[in-house]
From TrEMBL:
It comes from Hymenobacter sedentarius. It catalyses: Transfers a segment of a (1->4)-alpha-D-glucan chain to a primary hydroxy group in a similar glucan chain. Catalyzes the formation of the alpha-1,6-glucosidic linkages in glycogen by scission of a 1,4-alpha-linked oligosaccharide from growing alpha-1,4-glucan chains and the subsequent attachment of the oligosaccharide to the alpha-1,6 position. The keyword Glycosyltransferase applies. This is 1,4-alpha-glucan branching enzyme. Pfam families: Alpha-amylase, Alpha-amylase_C, CBM_48. One of its GO terms (biological process) is glycogen biosynthetic process. The keyword Transferase applies. CDD domains: AmyAc_bac_euk_BE, E_set_GBE_euk_N. One of its GO terms (cellular component) is cytoplasm. The active site is at D350, E404. InterPro entries: A-amylase/branching_C (IPR006048), Branching_enzy (IPR037439), GH (IPR017853), GH13_cat_dom (IPR006047), Glyco_hydro_13_N (IPR004193), Glyco_hydro_b (IPR013780), Ig-like_fold (IPR013783), Ig_E-set (IPR014756). GO terms for molecular function: 1,4-alpha-glucan branching enzyme activity; cation binding; hydrolase activity, hydrolyzing O-glycosyl compounds.
Length: 684
């Protein structure tokens, strides 16, 4: 027998594993690398398990093809399946069987799945396009009519207000013509127009997908935005929830039109070179049993956690059990469904902070790395998000994934192979909060520009951010739009272009500076909320009992922005010029901004980005003559954008035709008060 070699010391046998790229780039993460490695290992194990049993992650994400009501041409009929392991009986009911709760019982199969087959020979003239149906679920507590979990369309009865599932099989399927559209080519850097279809009309009513496609898409294209983020698409029973109490995850809201209408909108956006993101809600769901999934099989623990863990403390809603394989598959299938069925180009994941932590971010200040990796982290939710980002990127190349997270979790927007969660961008939620805080509590002359610059530029290196001055969150009733904070009652009385009211002039000037500074310094993408590009004057408030079910604040007053005699039109013209400048210079794809001068005394910030020089004077009254600052590139410069241009409601104080020349790496400019100038090297 051969003599064995001496055993090497453990350290020599197992050299230290190379650090993840995420840790290499941020040494402060070193103590938490075991957690990151464990997350990565768990993901790989789960993917291997999925691939072993289903072939691929995409094949696994097909629960909607197995569950619900699906026509099977091979078998010659409809197959209806539902996952309800805790139920004692299920019956398919609808207008096709006179809503007879005993006529069509389901048979229980393996794994808690129930099934019934309805042959075409018997039902083809009864179960047709437009038919309404539900599932009657019997539990130990009795029987209830429920909406199927994966229904594709839910409609509300005008008289009873009751929702039912609806068969949707139009004779002529929608014909897509967007085969040549490529998200990555259309969106080199995202300039996002956040929109709500229902409130996109000026009339006091619910707007439609078709109206949005016909009337709003041309505006978005002309304004230069290359991405639309559609809110409130997933079906929700209460219109006033802004679409965040979702009941039916696979259904496009029928209050805005048909599935073909939504497809038409997206197809038309693609024709115009605009990507469309879905504001997807996987962080929670409506607690309603009549319309939603709560207590579906009587167990109290099917799609959602059991007991108090299943209730969100602040949102009055239900919380998904991400650790349950069937729930994981259900939500992943939802990701695939919207990419496949409606050709969405990615998602803005709502409420990611709530998903990442057991405390949901409620009352927690994220002050150190321990907050991210301790026992408060919901590892099941993190695994689900890693699976979801993997699926989306694999299923649709170039898809854009944005996380709404206020915690700042390191690696959230880095590739999974580096130890990240796989999102592409996170929302810079601190920026709009800071602007509102300034406007509420600090006089203009006391604005701390150092704090402002820190807020705009304080983001994790290598993790892309979507900057915004205001979104739907800031515009909701209880708060005000930026224009309302800035101009107050003057938004109703002093917005004529010829009106020289100083309060309105101040508000218009600062509105432009706030948006330009946010876009130019705040991130690698930019977002505005529908109407706010022209300083929409009022907040958003959907019809509800408290306002007499009024649509007055759930609409957009386009006529204000279109009227050349109003300051709103001037604000819109500036936004258009600003966005087109950012597109043409690929401003957001450049590296981070480089601060050239921070002048607290004169209230001036000067910085460079993408070869452009930005000069912003926030002083309430001081216009600066022969104002000097260093630039990195010597030569001649000219103004390519001035917020003081009369087209934008300014006073034409700087001479925009003048060519400036450096002297010993310095430029000397005339910079009027409350004005921003953007300069470019001549010949650049």
């Amino acid at each position: 027998m051969a003599k064995s070699k001496p055993t090497a010391p453990a350290a020599a046998q197992a050299p230290r594993r190379a650090s993840l790229a995420l840790v290499k780039n941020d040494p402060w993460l070193a103590p938490f690398e075991p957690v990151l490695q464990q997350r990565l290992a768990r993901l790989r194990a789960r993917l291997a398990e999925i691939e072993q049993h289903h072939g691929s992650l995409a094949n696994y994400a097909t629960a909607h093809q197995q569950l619900g009501l699906n026509h099977d041409a091979r078998r010659g009929g409809y197959v209806y399946r539902e996952w309800a392991p805790g139920a004692t009986a299920l019956y398919l009911v609808g207008d096709f069987n006179g809503w007879d709760r005993q006529a069509n019982p389901l048979q229980k199969l393996e794994y808690g799945v129930w099934e019934v087959f309805l042959p075409d020979a018997e039902y083809q003239h009864r179960l047709t396009h437009g038919s309404r149906y539900k599932v009657h679920v019997v539990t130990a507590a009795g029987g209830k009519d429920r909406l199927p979990a994966t229904l594709r369309r839910a409609v509300q009865d005008e008289q009873t207000k009751d929702y039912a599932a609806q068969v949707w099989r139009p004779e002529t399927p929608f014909t897509w013509t967007d085969q040549k559209f490529k998200t990555a080519a259309a969106v080199p850097e995202p300039l996002i127009y956040e929109a709500h279809v229902g409130m996109a009309t000026e009339e006091g009513r619910v707007g439609t997908y078709r109206e949005f496609a016909d009337n709003i898409l041309p505006r978005i294209e002309a304004d230069g935005y290359n991405t639309i983020q559609l809110m409130a698409v997933q079906e929700h029973p209460y219109y006033g929830s802004f679409g965040y109490h979702v009941a039916n995850l696979f259904a496009a809201s029928s209050r805005f039109g048909t599935p073909e209408d939504l497809k038409f909108l997206i197809n038309e956006a693609h024709r115009r070179g605009i990507a469309v993101l879905l504001d997807i809600v996987h962080s929670h769901a409506v607690k309603n049993e009549a319309e939603g999934l709560a207590n579906f099989d009587g167990s109290g623990n099917l799609y959602f956690h059991k007991g108090e863990r299943g209730n969100h403390p602040g949102w009055d809603s239900k919380l998904f059990d991400y650790g349950r394989p069937e729930v994981q598959q259900f939500l992943l299938s939802n990701v695939r469904f919207w990419l496949e069925e409606y050709h969405f180009d990615g998602f803005r994941f709502d409420g990611v902070t709530s998903m990442l932590y057991h405390h949901h971010g409620e009352g927690v200040a994220f002050m150190g790395y321990d907050n991210y990796f301790g026992p408060a982290a919901d590892e099941d939710a993190i695994l689900y998000l890693q699976l979801a980002t993997t699926l989306a990127h694999e299923y649709k190349k170039g898809s854009i994934l944005i996380a709404e997270d206020m915690s700042g979790l390191p690696g959230l927007c880095r590739p999974i192979k580096e130890g990240g969660v796989g999102f592409d961008f996170r929302l810079a939620m601190g920026i709009p909060d800071y602007w509102i805080k300034l406007l509420k509590h600090t006089p203009d002359e006391n604005w701390p520009l150092g704090d402002l610059w820190h807020t705009l530029t304080n983001r994790r290196a290598g993790e892309k951010t979507i900057a915004y001055a205001e979104s739907h969150d800031q515009a909701l009733v209880g708060d005000k739009t930026l224009s309302h904070w800035l101009i107050d009652a003057g938004i109703y009385t002093h917005m004529q272009a010829a009106d020289l009211d100083p309060g309105a002039a101040r508000g218009v000037a600062l509105h432009k500076l706030i948006r330009l500074l946010t876009l130019a310094a705040g991130g690698e993408g930019y977002l505005t909320f529908i109407g706010n590009e022209f300083g929409h004057p009022e907040w958003v408030d959907f019809p509800r009992e408290g306002n007499g079910w009024s649509y007055h604040f759930a609409r957009r007053q386009w006529s204000l922005g279109d009227n050349p005699d109003l300051k709103y039109h001037q604000l819109g013209a500036f936004d258009k010029a600003m966005v087109h400048m950012a597109r043409e210079r690929h401003l957001l794809a450049a590296g981070p901004p480089h601060l050239l001068k921070h002048d607290e005394e004169n209230k001036v910030l000067v910085f460079e980005r993408a070869g452009l020089v930005f000069v912003v004077n926030f002083h309430v009254e001081k216009s600066l003559v022969d104002y000097r600052f260093w630039v990195t590139k010597e030569g001649k410069y000219h103004v390519i954008l001035s917020s003081d241009n009369s087209r934008f409601g300014g006073f034409d104080r700087p001479d925009e035709s003048y060519v400036y020349e450096t002297f010993e790496h310095q430029l000397s400019l005339y910079v009027p008060s409350r004005v921003a100038l953007v300069l470019e090297a001549v010949g650049a």
